[in-house]
């Protein structure tokens, strides 16, 4: 791999060379090479490769559909690595499918095992703002009444708030998600917007009508930081400090 030093910035393939731009903003070039697609698809010696590719595609599809199901909760939570990190966890979930053969293991079968759910519970959708480092207080999840509660919550003590934040917006989500059919329903709780001061309060997040459907039941907790300016509240740093965590799965 070589770095392209030129005033001409191009992307794509030209004369056997592939030009592309990486996340650092620099342009790179590499020559075309590797094993031909036809050989990978047909050569018996690449059987394991085909099996791995098949399961990779299964995990990628599952991850994409799962993120789409939670898109309402993911708003204002900024982390470019969440797709890759989630896929890594779903690969582990897929491994709990002990009934399917090589190349045919599925997330939808693996997730039925309690040990597989552990691979997803606790997942932070923003690695730069893990919930447990933002919220310095325990919370209680009642999966029967569909509630998440925080007792005697004092914002300026119980939050590791970033510089410039004047308010916090807190909410929860309840979802049912079917990893087989990809059917889902996502429901938001009441939203609590509080000044980051010494006022204490008991907070309970509940759902007027909890999510219905088949599959697994999910609970998520979200914290967003805001800044007040001339009486209006704005997202702080475009959501870079906001936390969203999958706190329970049943």
Structure write-up:
By secondary structure, the chain is of the alpha+beta class. It has eight helices and 13 strands. It has helices at residues 37-42, 47-69, 71-74, 82-94, 107-110, 114-118, 131-134, 155-158; strands spanning 2-3, 12-14, 17-21, 27-31, 140-142, 147-153, 167-177, 184-188, 192-195, 201-205, 216-229, 232-235, 243-249. Strands 7, 8, 9, 11, 12 and 13 form a six-stranded antiparallel sheet that branches. It has a four-stranded antiparallel sheet with strand order 1-4-3-2, with no helix packed on it. Strand 7 and strand 8 (184-188) form a beta hairpin. Helix 2 packs across helix 4 (82-94). Residues 1-7 have low confidence and may be disordered.
């Amino acid at each position: 791999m070589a770095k392209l030093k030129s005033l001409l910035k191009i992307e794509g393939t030209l004369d056997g060379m592939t030009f592309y731009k990486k996340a650092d903003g620099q342009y790179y070039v590499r020559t075309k090479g590797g094993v031909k697609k036809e050989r990978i698809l047909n050569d018996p010696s690449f059987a394991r490769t085909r099996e791995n590719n098949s399961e990779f595609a299964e995990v990628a599809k599952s991850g994409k559909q799962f993120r789409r199901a939670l898109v309402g909760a993911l708003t204002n939570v900024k982390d470019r690595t969440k797709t890759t990190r989630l896929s890594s966890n779903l690969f582990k979930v897929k491994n709990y499918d002990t009934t399917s053969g090589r190349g045919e293991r599925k997330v939808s079968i693996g997730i039925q095992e309690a040990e597989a759910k552990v691979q997803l519970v606790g997942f932070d959708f923003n690695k730069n703002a893990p919930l447990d480092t933002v919220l310095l207080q325990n919370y209680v999840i009642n999966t029967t009444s569909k509630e998440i509660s925080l007792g005697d919550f004092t914002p300026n003590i119980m939050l590791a708030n970033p510089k410039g934040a004047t308010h916090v917006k807190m909410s929860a989500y309840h979802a049912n998600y079917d990893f087989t059919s990809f059917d889902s329903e996502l429901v938001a709780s009441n939203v609590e917007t509080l000044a980051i001061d010494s006022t204490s309060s008991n907070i309970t997040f509940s759902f007027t009508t909890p999510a219905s459907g088949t599959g697994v039941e999910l609970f998520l907790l979200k914290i967003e930081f805001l800044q007040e300016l001339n009486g209006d509240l704005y997202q702080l740093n475009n959501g870079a400090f906001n936390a969203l965590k999958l706190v329970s799965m049943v």
